Hints:
- It is a single chain.
- By secondary structure, the chain is of the alpha+beta class.
- Helix content is 31%, strand content 20%.
- It is built from 16 helices and 22 strands.
- It has a 7-stranded mixed β-sheet.
- Helix 2 crosses helix 15 and helix 7 (186-193) crosses helix 9 (220-232).
- The radius of gyration is 23 Å and the shape is globular.
- The two termini are 35 Å apart.
- The mean pLDDT is 89.
Amino acid sequence: MSRRDGTRIPGRDRHARLLAPRPGRDRIAGDPPCVAVIGGGIAGLAAAAVLAERGVRVVLHEREPVLGGRVSGWPVALPDGTPATMSRGFHAFFRQYYNLRALLRRTDPALGMLTGLPDYPLLHSSGLRDGFRRVPRTPPFSALGFALLSPSFRPRDLLALRPAAALPLLDVRTGRVHERLDHVSAHDFLDTLRFPAAARHLAFEVFSRSFFADPRQLSAAEMALMFHIYFLGSSEGLLFDVPREPFPQALWDPLARHLSRHGVEVRTAAPVDAVRPGPSGGHLVVDGTGARAYDAVVLALDTDGLRAVVGRSPGLGDAAWRAGVARLRTAPPFLVSRLWLDRPVAAGRPGFLGTSGFGSLDNVSVLSRWEGEAARWAARTGGSVVELHAYALPPTAVRDVEEKRLVDQLHRVYPETRDARVVAARHEWRADCPLFTVGGHADRPTVRTPDPALVVAGDLVRTGLPVALMERAATSGFLAANALLERWGVRGEPLWTVPDRGRSALLRALARRCGPR
């Protein structure tokens, strides 16, 4: 982990990798350039923060009325008039999310807005349980410890594994992993390993579905990269933090104030229609108020938003780049159901539980165990606040039916909720996450585009670094800002990642010598 100047913050992993920015001035000299950042999620906020801190004039366009993108929240009223905050669901802030944490440290250097959960428990409908609290964190003992401690690995399962097929996981090099494995699905890759079914459900499919994708659609390269980030590339482990309060209060409202202090014009509820070449260089950004000229543009949009803006902006990029953007795909829909119950769940229930084998239910969060707003409501009413997730629902799924199924599965997982009265319920049905499909890596845009005044950021972007999910969004936002600052001779943001290859030289040599060609 690091401070803003790139020096290390005391932390667990000595092997974290620093990517120093190119040398340059501390700030813009003279008349500052003006940049439009289109998209107010993590990537756009990261880009806007770095640019504004270096003296660039920034206008942040966000189509929704709130900031945070897929980690946003908004006010709702419960039936009794009680104000509450709804969101798109639980997010885990893993300890190896160095760049996301660097963004959050701008408003809370000690990260007091986060609190750690004691374990990452997993439950299969067969009764098998797993967790990561007791698993060693130092590679390669992390993966070995999980296999030895997990009840889903029986001795005969270990004997049936094909170690040679698994060797690519021991030598994940971020510059080559997609070249080697992008043509294979995560499901088929696990088949070649002869991975035991129970461990497969708990150890891999729970995680692959966190990409909002069925393992049959997910690129094996993304799964291997994930294995590297959490198991063999980092000693941070799979324990994580969560915000102490809802996302807006804990994360984005303070960051919005930080941006405002640095002169950023934040325009929410302001969708962008198109981006056109400017008459004297730069670009014109067209929205409902007209066209405004900028020296450069950051496209920090989700998949559908990027396709739509590029599709309405025929002057952007070149034909090959535009065709790649047009081929990007969105993951299947997901459902988040939040229930305010009139009684508590059982005392031993964890704050978060990953599930497998319970129909479409992928996890259960008891928000009143760790989120302040939910905890205060529970203390006042004697109830509890529970959130249910269903990822990668089939195209034929019917929303009302899936909402009922989630509640039915909650009753299986936590039987005491059968008798609970639902005081209030809110459901979010969305389909806007990127799909890292088999063979699709080459189509995903990089931060840099054919136009040096146009950069792209977001969790769909190819960074060439060992990052995923929210950390990929934050990292790409910093990279986008750095690419523009480099043009103006200004030093950008230092980045930190887990190592970009397997940490054990012995295991890397074994993988090269004995692994599949």
